[in-house]
Each structure stands twice: as structure tokens, then as C-alpha cells.
Recover the amino acids of this structure.
């Protein structure tokens, strides 16, 4: 894995690396995975939530810059949208 990312983003980076090596990804609509991230975040103290959100942002920026080759402006737009969605969700 990419040593510069921490939390949030490892799956995207792994997928990019696997695709680059010629592996395929498949979608099975009968498979359902439930992830309770939001519910567990509500129990985390506000200060720690801020650190987690910052780690998520850094991982997203690394992925977009290094793996998707987004410009600084494009990354800023993605962050603005992600921040807006986070505020709406509370």
C-alpha cells in the first residue's frame, strides 16, 4: 500500500494499482456490505473527529493528485463538495 496515506483512501489506491497491473473488478448486485462509519463517528469526541476528517481529506487529496492526476483547482472543487456534503449530513 501507499505509505503516505492513512485511513480513507486505501481501497481506491489498491484498485488503481490492481487495474494498472491488468486485474479486473466485478460488480455483484446480490452482494451487500454495510459499513457503520457514520454511527461510530458520532461516539468519537469532536476534537478526534476533526483529526479524522483531516486525515480523510489528506488521503483524498493524495489519491486525486498522485493517482488521478487532478489539478490543484480540481482538488479544491472536490474538497468543497465533500465539505458541503459533510456539513449537510451533520
Amino acid at each position: 500500500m501507499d505509505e503516505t496515506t492513512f485511513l480513507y483512501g486505501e481501497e481506491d489506491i489498491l484498485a488503481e494499482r490492481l487495474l494498472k497491473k491488468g486485474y479486473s473488478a466485478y460488480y455483484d448486485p446480490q452482494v451487500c456490505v454495510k459499513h457503520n462509519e457514520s454511527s461510530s463517528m458520532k461516539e468519537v469526541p469532536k476534537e478526534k473527529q476533526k483529526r479524522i476528517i483531516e486525515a480523510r481529506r489528506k488521503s483524498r487529496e493524495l489519491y486525486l493528485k498522485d493517482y488521478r492526476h487532478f489539478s490543484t483547482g480540481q482538488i479544491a472543487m472536490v474538497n468543497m463538495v465533500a465539505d458541503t456534503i459533510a456539513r449537510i449530513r451533520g
About this structure: The chain is about 60% helix and 0% strand. The chain has a mean pLDDT of 84. The radius of gyration is 15 Å.
